[in-house]
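Practice problem 4.
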């Protein structure tokens, strides 16, 4: 190891190695917050993996084989009905983690979690994760707090899907997605958006057309580009601000 690497602490997560032996610079917010010892413990029992679009991370009602610390891309938490229809109840990107039931000793997933925008992450087996929790109190606390943020998302999105118009919901969803991927272009089809918002494709087409006509987005086959972030926030329903406000309140409380 070079002198430069020797000086790089795990706390600053400059470059770390997962089980696969490849040095990686972690972007995951939860991992970046950990003390050096805990970060090393997690990364040495994890594997860095690419996560193509449509990769299923956890499947509804099935055992959770792996948990994931997302590095890039966007994962969608879906409630799936018996007829196969699904609706999104949460989003997570590099700020988050997939596999929360493992945190409290459960072994199966209540929802399907799927990559809707390709990315990457650190994957850790359920067994290794359970062992890591016993040695990593800061990790456990961070994940408990993240689970609360995901709970707020789920309850707010459920209300949003019932009470707000499709164009407002679409604006909210695009803002949440941009926050997590850090880019103005969100690669999605209208069919996939319809699944995410729990509505008909024709309704998404109409809603996207309204936002595009207002100059807030441009839509071409397979991607949406956010043109005016400020006005898109104004066009979104109250749910976007409500989710962010509560999450920020908790983060401020955690600093006290």
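Answer key:
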């Amino acid at each position: 190891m070079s002198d430069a690497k020797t000086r790089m602490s795990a706390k600053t997560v400059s470059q770390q190695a997962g089980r696969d032996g490849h040095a990686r610079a972690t972007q995951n917010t939860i991992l970046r917050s950990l003390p050096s010892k805990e970060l090393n413990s997690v990364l040495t029992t994890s594997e860095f993996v690419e996560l193509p679009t449509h990769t299923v991370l956890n499947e509804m009602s099935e055992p959770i084989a792996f948990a994931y610390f997302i590095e890039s891309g966007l994962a969608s938490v879906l409630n799936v009905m018996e007829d196969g229809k699904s609706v999104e109840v949460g989003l997570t990107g590099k700020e988050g983690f997939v596999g929360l039931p493992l945190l409290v000793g459960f072994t199966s997933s209540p929802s399907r979690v799927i990559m809707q925008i390709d990315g990457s992450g650190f994957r850790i087996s359920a067994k290794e994760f359970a062992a890591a929790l016993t040695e990593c109190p800061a990790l456990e606390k961070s994940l408990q707090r993240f689970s609360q943020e995901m709970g707020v998302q789920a309850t707010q999105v459920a209300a949003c899907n019932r009470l707000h118009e499709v164009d407002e919901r679409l604006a909210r969803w695009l803002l949440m997605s941009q926050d997590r991927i850090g880019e103005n272009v969100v690669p999605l089809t209208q069919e996939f958006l319809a699944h995410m918002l729990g509505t008909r494709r024709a309704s998404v087409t109409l809603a996207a057309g309204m936002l595009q006509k207002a100059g807030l987005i441009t839509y071409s086959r397979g991607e949406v580009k956010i043109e005016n972030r400020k006005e898109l926030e104004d066009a979104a329903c109250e749910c976007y601000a409500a989710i962010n406000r509560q999450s920020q309140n908790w983060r401020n409380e955690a600093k006290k």
